[in-house]
């Protein structure tokens, strides 16, 4: 209770001291477009019932790294948007890039797409399975114009995997998980390097003017909004590269953070400040061009922060890449004039898979009965404060990651092999098995030196070989008290639920690297490389010719 009170005080203090900039008080900066963005809402006629949907996905933003969670990093735009909208304070994503993005765009858990292990690597012949219907495809069915700006990271080894083939009318951004913010080059390993900036299906060499990606992506968003008719519904998916490493930012954003000694934290703060300003400019463009009054803006991080790269998840445990709360509990909010309960906090359970059915329903679309979704329509939960239809979340089951050497069926009561990395939430309870990953609590003091200094980190020692943890997340959101020994019956119930989920899992897709992926073989550009074997094509042609000959002979015989 004392910790909660202190956190609430810090959050309130940050709101009082940081203050909000008026929409019209900031000019220039991240993605400034020519002209006055502060113009009145144009008379675009009565808005259609289908809302404009703007989904903004930040990359690697830590749970604490927003002003209203008590951060020393100033985020006046995010604070204002969240304060006037609905803050999602029981909101979950996945611990890494590809898993969160795949679940957002399909409404399905990783175990149902085959992407339950790690991320899609640049050299892997792998992508989001083509038999999965995507969110932009469903929105296009009901008349939406669909545009993506930013980071894809759902595979590109063949042309059919590209964003423009998965439902987006246009795409401007990167295909990989990370890269230089200015040059847009990425090396996956020594000698395996290439350019990674695309416009639709081609390398965007003409746009390579050394512009910082956060600003460049914002300018592209402004161009899309300026050229589109606001009377027609638009889905705009803005997946910023920030604040993922490498830690780079324009010099002027360091102005307020010279006092941060830790160089990674200082760079991270500058990157987040630039991102906050970019989102301000996106919001201004929505107002200027007549979208705002009929728009829904959703903001989310894709996973927790990485302390070694400047991110902070305090007071949560763990970091990006782990199934502790610090890896999967995210910053998120909804801002919209269409909300009924503006200025509220939603503490109901919400997961990133829920956006798929929620947004399709808002768009007046139809969800096919044969699409077995893991997400729920949570609009009434968010907008009206009703109870969430969601009572559980399968955080993941990764059958490949079995690094818990002491895991066994015996430790799982004969129900589950606890060597397998898995995590599940059912109502108040959360169960983890296997090796959940880096488990320290990293307080703000850890960033006081050149570190981060692990001397400041809080650690908990558990008996060697432990492979099962149980927490009451509602009462203990910081995962400090393991209850697995005290409540074995609850452990068994959750293990059975894991086992039930596992019966519905599809095989893991995690192929070995393909040497044909080397950008040197593709004009120095990361891009689709997979082509059907010429021999196979020839054999298919010869088979087709033989069939034609046989059919002709049959006709002659007749």
Could you characterize the architecture of this molecule?
The structure is a single chain. The protein has 2 domains: 50-389, Alkaline Phosphatase, subunit A (3-Layer(aba) Sandwich), CATH 3.40.720; 395-502, Arylsulfatase, C-terminal domain. 25% of the residues lie in helices and 15% in strands. It contains 11 helices and 18 strands. It has helices at 2-18, 76-84, 97-106, 135-141, 213-227, 263-288, 325-328, 355-362, 379-384, 488-502, 534-557; strands spanning 52-58, 86-88, 91-92, 145-151, 170-174, 185-189, 192-195, 198-199, 202-203, 234-239, 295-301, 332-335, 344-346, 350-351, 392-398, 421-426, 429-433, 468-472. Helix 5 runs parallel beside helix 6. The radius of gyration is 24 Å and the shape is globular. Residues 1-28, 33-47 and 552-558 have low confidence and may be disordered. One of its GO terms (molecular function) is sulfuric ester hydrolase activity. Residues 530-543 have a biased composition (Basic and acidic residues). Residues 51-363 form the Sulfatase N-terminal domain.
């Amino acid at each position: 209770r004392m910790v909660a009170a202190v956190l609430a005080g810090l959050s309130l203090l940050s709101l009082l001291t940081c203050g909000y900039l008026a929409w019209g008080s900031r000019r220039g900066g991240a993605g400034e477009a020519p002209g006055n963005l502060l113009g009145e809402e144009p008379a675009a006629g009565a808005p259609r019932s289908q809302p404009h949907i703007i989904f903004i996905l930040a990359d690697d933003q830590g749970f604490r790294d927003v002003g209203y969670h008590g951060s020393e990093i100033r985020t006046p735009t995010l604070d204002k948007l969240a304060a006037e909208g609905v803050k999602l304070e029981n909101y979950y994503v996945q611990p890494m890039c590809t898993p969160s993005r795949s679940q957002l765009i399909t409404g399905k858990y990783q175990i149902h797409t085959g992407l339950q292990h790690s991320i899609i690597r640049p050299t892997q012949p792998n992508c989001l399975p083509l038999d999965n219907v995507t969110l932009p495809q469903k929105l296009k069915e009901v008349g939406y114009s669909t545009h993506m700006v930013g980071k894809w990271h759902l595979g590109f080894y063949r042309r059919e995997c590209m964003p423009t083939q998965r439902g987006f009318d246009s795409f401007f951004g990167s295909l990989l998980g990370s890269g230089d913010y200015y040059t847009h080059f990425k090396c996956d390993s020594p000698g395996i390097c290439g350019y990674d900036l695309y416009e639709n299906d081609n390398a965007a060499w003409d746009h390579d003017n050394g512009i910082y990606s956060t600003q460049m992506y914002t300018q592209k968003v402004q161009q899309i909004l300026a050229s589109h008719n606001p009377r027609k519904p638009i889905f705009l998916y803005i997946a910023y590269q920030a604040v993922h490493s490498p830690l780079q930012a324009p010099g002027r954003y360091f102005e307020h953070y010279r006092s941060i000694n830790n160089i990674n934290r200082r760079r991270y703060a500058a990157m987040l400040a630039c991102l906050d300003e970019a989102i301000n400019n996106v919001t201004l463009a929505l107002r200027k061009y007549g979208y705002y009054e009929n728009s829904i803006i959703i903001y989310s991080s894709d996973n927790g922060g990485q302390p070694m790269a400047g991110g902070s998840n305090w007071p949560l445990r763990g970091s990006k890449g782990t199934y502790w709360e610090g890896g999967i509990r995210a910053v998120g909010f909804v801002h919209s004039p269409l909300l009924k309960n503006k200025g509220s906090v939603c503490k109901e359970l919400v997961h990133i898979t829920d956006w798929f059915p929620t947004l399709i329903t808002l768009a007046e679309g139809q969800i096919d009965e044969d699409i077995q979704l893991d997400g729920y329509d949570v609009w009434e939960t968010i907008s009206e404060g009703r109870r969430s239809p969601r009572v559980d979340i399968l955080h993941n089951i990764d059958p490949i990651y079995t690094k818990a050497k002491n895991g066994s069926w015996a430790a799982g009561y004969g129900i589950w092999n606890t060597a397998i990395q898995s995590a599940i939430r059912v109502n108040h309870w959360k169960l983890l098995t296997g090796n959940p990953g880096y488990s320290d609590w990293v307080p703000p003091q850890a960033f006081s030196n050149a570190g981060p200094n692990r001397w400041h980190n809080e650690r908990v020692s558990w008996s060697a070989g432990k492979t099962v943890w149980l927490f009451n997340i509602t009462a203990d959101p910081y995962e400090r008290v393991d209850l697995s020994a005290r409540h074995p019956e609850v452990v068994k119930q959750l293990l059975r639920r894991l086992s039930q989920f596992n019966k519905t899992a599809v095989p893991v897709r995690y192929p070995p690297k393909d040497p044909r992926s080397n950008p040197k073989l593709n004009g120095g550009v990361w891009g689709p490389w997979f082509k059907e074997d010429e021999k196979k094509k020839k054999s298919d042609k010869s088979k087709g010719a033989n069939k034609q000959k046989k059919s002709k002979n049959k006709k002659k015989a007749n």
